[in-house]
Amino acid sequence: MSKTTLTFHELIELIDASVKSKKIEKDYSDFLKSCRDLGISSYILNTIIVRAKEGYSNNDNNNEDVDFSFFVPSRPKQEKKDENTPKEIQVVTKVERKTSKTAWFLILFAIGCCIAEAVYIYNINEDKKWYSRRLDESNNRSTELSNTLTTISDMTSDLSDDSSFNNWHSSNHEKSSESHNNYSFTASKGDKLSFNYFVSSEANYDYLTITLSGDSISTNELVKVSGDSHNSRVFVFKKGGGYNLQVKYSKDSSVDKNNDNAGVSNISLHRNYKNLLDNIHSISDINH
């Protein structure tokens, strides 16, 4: 037999001729090799031989049995093809391309995650800086106000006609409770009432309220604040007469927040001395 690669049709014709010439047993190994080259199993080869023998027997009216002793009993393991065949090279190339695309996708995804994380961290740091600046500004303003009030207090400490009042601190911590204090005094036109206050409570529910009332004015709510706050207030009397300053801390019936307290300090009544007022104004202008 020729060693060149056969087509399937040519293989069938050669098998048929070998069966007729009764050389099939001798040629079987070559046919098996050709089938393997074509990717055909030994089972198909055996079937082709049986059919050829049956056709040959029918034509010759010969009923002899087919001898299967030389057949390969099971599907042989296909021989390993050369590793560098064009088809396999194409498959490997496709796999490499797919792997390369997947790798690039993962790299780009990782880069995107890193960028998003960096932006997130940057925004957090910027927010921290902003809150830190605001806190510093608030502390500076509080310090300036405290210095101003201290200076005013020092300026008026030698004036016997000026008045100072005791500090007050809330004493209630139960829900739906209230603590308060009243300060009564007489003021003249142009006098100034100043005080510091603070509150640490549940925002929008537990309030520090400071109210001024008197003969010559209707009730005036000077301060109403909740949450976490500290500040100061200066009130100028436009009319003379008797006055009452009430400070009150009221709690609602539910949640407690922050330190749950409030207070008023440095309550002072400054008389209307022209030089003193000019100095106070100058200090206020410098601090603002």
Largest sheet: 5 strands, antiparallel
CATH architecture descriptor of the largest domain = Sandwich
Order of helices and strands: HHHHEEEEEEEEEH
Residue ranges: pLDDT <50 for 5 or more in a row?
none
Task: Round the Cα radius of gyration to an integer and report it.
Answer: 53 Å
Total domain units: 3
Q: Quick one: how many beta strands? A: 9
Describe the structure.
This protein is α+β, with helices and mostly antiparallel strands. Strands 1, 2, 4, 7 and 9 form a five-stranded antiparallel sheet that branches. A four-stranded antiparallel sheet has the order 3-8-5-6, with no helix packed on it. Strand 5 (207-214) and strand 6 (220-226) form a beta hairpin. It has three domains: 8-79; 81-159 and 274-288; 161-272, Sandwich (Jelly Rolls). The mean pLDDT is 82. It is 45% helix and 24% strand. The chain has five helices and nine strands.
